[in-house]
Design brief:
Blueprint (H helix, E strand, L loop, with lengths): L2 E5 L6 E9 L2 H16 L5 E11 L7 H8 L8 E7 L3 H16 L7 E3 L2 H11 L1
Parallel strand pairs: 2-3, 3-4, 4-5
Antiparallel strand pairs: 1-2
Length: 129
């Protein structure tokens, strides 16, 4: 699978999603399901680092809004913490902007932060907690 999802620490405070190679909407859906199950298994906030530096994704811009709607839900998981994406290119950030517009219309304010490095990602998580 192009997206590996795992606990980054023994205390289960951080989920890491590491992308390698080309990923698809289907890969993303599987990874999201896995993170939900992981968050369900604990009773505390869980932060995320989503590392896209070794991955690539080719989007059909015409399908972007439709795909974004399929992932958007009005709920936020009770254990969802700070989410930081490392290495997002302009296309991923455009997809996020579309996702944010769709979820905002549902009344959900889900924020993903963007970083260029691992160190920046950890600084953002510390600042946002």
């Amino acid at each position: 699978m192009a997206i590996q999802v795992y606990w980054q620490d023994e205390q289960k405070n951080m989920i890491r999603c590491s992308v390698s190679g080309r990923w698809t909407w289907d890969d993303l859906q599987k990874a999201l399901s896995q993170t939900i199950s992981m968050m369900d298994s604990v009773n505390h906030k869980v932060n995320f680092i989503i590392d896209l530096r070794n991955g690539s994704f080719v989007i059909n811009p015409l399908s972007l809004l439709g795909q974004t709607r399929s992932f958007a839900t009005p709920e936020t998981h009770r254990n969802e913490g700070v989410k930081v994406v490392i290495g997002a290119n302009g296309l991923v950030q455009t997809a996020y902007d579309g996702y944010r517009r769709v979820t905002s219309a549902m009344g959900k304010n889900q924020v993903f932060h963007f970083a260029d490095t691992e160190a920046q990602a950890h600084q953002i998580i510390e600042r946002e907690q």
